[in-house]
Each structure stands twice: as C-alpha cells, then as structure tokens.
Amino acid sequence: MPKDVPELLKGTLDLLILKTLEAGPMHGYAIARSIEQATERALQIEEGSLYPALYRMTNRGLLEFEWGRSTGNRRIKSYRLTPNGRKRLKSEQANWCRFTQAVARVLGEQPA
Amino acid sequence: MPKDVPELLKGTLDLLILKTLEAGPMHGYAIARSIEQATERALQIEEGSLYPALYRMTNRGLLEFEWGRSTGNRRIKSYRLTPNGRKRLKSEQANWCRFTQAVARVLGEQPA
DNA sequence: GTCATATACTTAGACGTTCTATGTATGACC
DNA sequence: GGTCATACATAGAACGTCTAAGTATATGAC
Questions:
Q1: How far does the CA of residue B7 sit from the closest CA of chain A (Å)?
Q2: pLDDT digit string (tens) for B32-53?
Q3: Which of B27, B33, B45, B102 is 20 to 30 Å from the Cα of B53, by its Cα?
C-alpha cells in the first residue's frame, strides 16, 4: 500500500494472509506485522484493508477465529485456516505463479 | 481477466499496455491481441477494461494517438508512448519487480 | 499518577479499476 | 444476404483497498 506499489496489492492480499496463516494461528495485527517484516517494509498492510479482508475470508469459510489473549494479555481474535482456506491457498498460489509468468512474458523476461 | 486470475490484473494493465507500446505504435484492439498472444491466452484483456484504460492513460499524458487506417482499411486509433509514458513504464516496471519479489518472500521462494 | 506509545480491533465512506453487457460500424467471405 | 472478425465506445455494477476516525488496554517514561 505504500505510494510506490499502488494498486498492485489488489487480489494479492488474500493470498498473503492465507500464506501467513499456513504457519499456524495468528491474530490480525500480528499477520500485518509478519507480512511487513517478511518483505522488509516493501509491503505495508493498512488496518482498513486488513480487517475487512479477514471478515470477507471468514464469511467465505476460508478462515475461522476464536477470541483469546495475547502474551501482553490483550483481547485478540486468533485466526486459522479452514480446510477450504488451505485449498484456496493452493489455488491462489498457483494462480499467482501463472499470472506473474504471463506478465513476465509480456515484459520480455525469461520464462521460469 | 479469466475467472482464475481474478483481481490480479488491477494495477498491472497499465504496465502491460505501456510495455506493449514500447515496441512501437499500435491500436487498441491490436494491443489486446498482442498481450493475449504473448501470454498464450493466460491474460485476456476485455474491451471494457482496455478502452477506459487507454483514455485514462491518454488523459494523464502517458499516451497519444492519431486516427488512421488499419491494413484492412478500418478506422483505428494508433497509440504511442509519450516521453512521460516512457518514464512511467520504467517506474512501473521497477515497482512490479519490487512487488513480486516482496510477495515471493512471503511465499517462501528464493529471492532473485 | 499521568502521558505517550504500541497494541488490537472496528467501521463508514470514498475512490479507482475492472467487468458485464450492450451498442455502433465496417470489411471479408461464402 | 448473412455471418464473422475487426475496431471502437460506454453505462452501470461489482469489488477491494484506502483514508480517517474511533474504542480500549497495557507498558514504560517522567
């Protein structure tokens, strides 16, 4: 979401969240931090994008959550992948690969 | 735009158009065909996305066009890059690289 | 003890891009 | 004359993200 990566996040945020949760349950705020850290701040996840995305994905049966407490004793919603979420992760990751390879072909790079 | 590459195109269509026009002037319909062919149909550019994008980019000074005739003697708008369009192509291509590398890090692939 | 800061979640409204769907017009071919 | 591919146009909806505001609580500094 930084100014230099304008619209590119669209359609990719779900994939990033799914992939981050593959490692194990995590709460929303921690998901955003994890992605930011993994990308060395190249991707920054706004809360106004993050939480709506978590709702969407929960409503679609990709995630479930339970209320809990963080190590700092705060109320958190601990999210985890559902079986459907896992399937979706696989398919979205495959789509992402196909898409980036297609773009790479237009950009004139060597195909993978 | 095929169902399996749902939102991913967002923010990337401009880059694809700019890159396609780097090779030389082309009209809208041909741009779409060129991208589809280069990606072996992996990316399909809808006319309802294409023409609004061309207007946007023209209004922003990235493209200019002149009316002409195709080899089949049809009226066409022949688009070409402006100097600003060339600059934009460079920066968008750089953004795209940074973005895909960031996503790759989250997905656990080897960085480039 | 109170103030600033980081954590953690929520949500309304705006924005921009893409898609669906439809329309026009023309040339080529049978 | 009918069908198909070419070529451009555009209204309206759908969707995801962002801006910006809000609530609440724990921690550490002073």
A1: 5
A2: 999 999 999 899 999 999 999 9
A3: B102
